[in-house]
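In pairs, describe these two lines:
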Amino acid sequence: GGPASVLTGGVIGLAISLVTVWATSIRIARLNVIRAIRDLPEPAVRHLSLRKAILAGAGVLAGSFLFQTGLAGDEATLVLAAPALTLFAAVPLVARLLPRRLVVSAAASAAGVWAVVATTVVPDAFEDVGFEMFLVQGIVLVAAGVALASQADRVWAWVADRLADRGGLAARLALAYPLARRGRSAILLAMFSLVVFTLTLMSAVNESDSARAPQLAADASGGWDLWVDSSPTGPLDTGDIAATDGVADVSPLVTGTVEMATQRNPDPDAWTVTGFEPSLLDQGVPALIERDDRFADDRAAFEAVAADPGLAITSEDMLHGDGPPGDATVAVGDTVTVTDPATGEGRDVTIAGLTNQDWMGNGLLTSRDAVVDLLGIRATGSRHYVAVDAGADAEAVAERITADHVASGADARTFRGAVDDEMREGQGFMRLMQGYLALGLVIGIAGLGVVMVRAVRERSRQEGMMRAMGFPARVVRRAFLLEAAFVAVQGIAIGLGLGLVTAQQMLSSDVFDDPIPFRAPWLELAVLVVVPALAALAAAVVPAAQAARIRPAAALRIAD
């Protein structure tokens, strides 16, 4: 983390830049000067050089080896990406036997299908995956989509011919140049697709995650509406809270700080312990994501913990602190050693169940008697769960309790508000990343504008010839605008569609604690479609106007 991550990112960026410059220099060094000056296409290569054959064969072998390695070690990223590497490396070899367009299309289709169905075909390799796997999946899908789109020039040419027959001459002219420069068009398409893909993926995950906030709050609350914390040295009395207008029921809890060690994390660490009474279950039962098999349901597990000082319930991220969760430190059936830091007295408790997340900071949840017996007077009754009257506003009641008991340091919060606040913090980082990616999209759109300016200059003779043949200026201008829209809309469609597919798979995987129902962010998706498309058109307005203003006589005087 920190400087190491920055340095790693810088090295990777430098490496990509150097490889790009190196590949470009090789391409430029091999240009035929006459063809470059006349802007003529390179002749079709009918043979496969030995060097290309060796590189292609090495790519096939490397992809096959990486795939076998991934299967053997359950490495999801290798299992996902290696077949795509193998397929694309094999294209030059197979293209000697079959039409290249067919080979590229088949390889791209197979790579895209594999990226979608791999989790079903070899599920063992995807049992414990992280976000990086879906990043690789997105790159494979976008690469496959762009490759397929670049091979669809005949389809687009057919469409353009039909448009020309019906008077859509500008559309025919707009498609001619991108279809003739498939390499350049593919690079622009990939840039648009990758950025839109990532923005779509983030938006869909954020939207789906936000949609489950009510259910998370309900699972954590167990039917209660809010909880109240007060000063440990002068805690609120249960009767004072019960007397507050709008309060229907109150359940007291005791809290304290202990040192805990688990079988998976034997080093003692300070943590909160909370004791509850059977009255905690009067309004319902907090949901467990896992419990001991001897308990028929979640209520039975909580009732057993309330009655047995040797049992406890905690969240699956216990002892992770404020940092990102890593390997599990506790599981159902594990033994946790709880020690009073003041006296050194300790005891063992067995984990009977796990909650999804500890939104309230209860820490280790056990019986009230167990906490009082261990900590004595250091076990303070500074926490209460509160249910409000039917029809009452829980937020208003929380504010009333906080205002009425300032002297006791009362701080009342609703379960729904706490969950929303916690999720908002996590989503804030995602929004920041979306902002940076949106900046990248703006830069890409500006790059499209630069490409359009170059296109106007490179094709000045053609533009002058069209004007001399009687093409109106509005047709030339419209052709350049449609050309920019053609590239941008394709990139948006590819990125949007594949982003939604990847988001759906991510949300249904075990990257999250439980599968999350997919929910499409329709408003954000509409923005992702409309804004980049309009921005691409705006970037092409000036070049299109320049092309329309070209004087035929001046353009045709350019020497060959």
